[in-house]
Amino acid sequence: MSEQESPPLRVCGVNGVNGANLPRELVEVLNEQDRCVPLLDVYPIEEQDITVNNIAQALENGRFFYDFLWREWDDDEECEDYAGLIEKRIQLYYDIQDGSIPGPIGERFKKMLEKYRNKQLELIEYQNSIRDDPLPVEAVECWKKYYEILMLCGLFKFWEDMRLR
């Protein structure tokens, strides 16, 4: 490595963590680099001590929850049986994993989930690009994007109901 090249940095900033529990040197490096990533984008290096392995497992559990079980509209709806809804989503996950739902159909579900996430991000970016007083064409486009997301939400509800699969 030449003198001008610096070695790749393998640390990242984490928001919402008590800095008193981190080594002082790490906090200084993080502050100097001014780097932040979402917590679920952190991947601990394997073959570390048991504490790091436990953190890695907790992060994987969080990723599974947010990637497969939780939906953005869960916060918007009043659900009397949220635990039952999560059980249905877990069952859907296992049905896809064990082949009860054929591979191509399971892939279609995963693509639909990815499409939903992309449409959600697209809507947020579009809303952020609109100034305070939107033009009628901008409002119509925003509603189109919103209703496209609502249609995908309805399709997910069909997938989650085992009677309708």
Percent of residues in helices comes to: 55-70%
- Ends apart, CA distance between termini: 57 Å
Order of helices and strands: HHHHH
DSSP helix count?
5
> What is the count of distinct domains?
3
Work out the radius of gyration: 21 Å
Shape label: flat
Mean pLDDT: 78
Strand portion: under 5%
What structural category arises from helix and sheet content? Answer: mainly alpha
Number of strands: 0
Which oligomerization state do the chains in this entry correspond to? single chain
Residue ranges: pLDDT <50 for 5 or more in a row? 1-15
* Main β-sheet description: none
Structural write-up:
By secondary structure, the chain is mainly alpha-helical. It folds into three domains: 1-37, no CATH class; 40-69; 75-165. It has five helices and no strands. It has helices at 24-33, 50-69, 82-97, 103-129, 136-160. Residues 1-15 have low confidence and may be disordered.
How is the secondary structure organized here?
Blueprint (H helix, E strand, L loop, with lengths): L23 H10 L16 H20 L12 H16 L5 H27 L6 H25 L5
Give structural attributes.
165 residues, mainly alpha, 3 domains, disordered N terminus, SHC SH2 domain-binding protein 1-like protein, SHCBP-like_N, SHCBP1-like
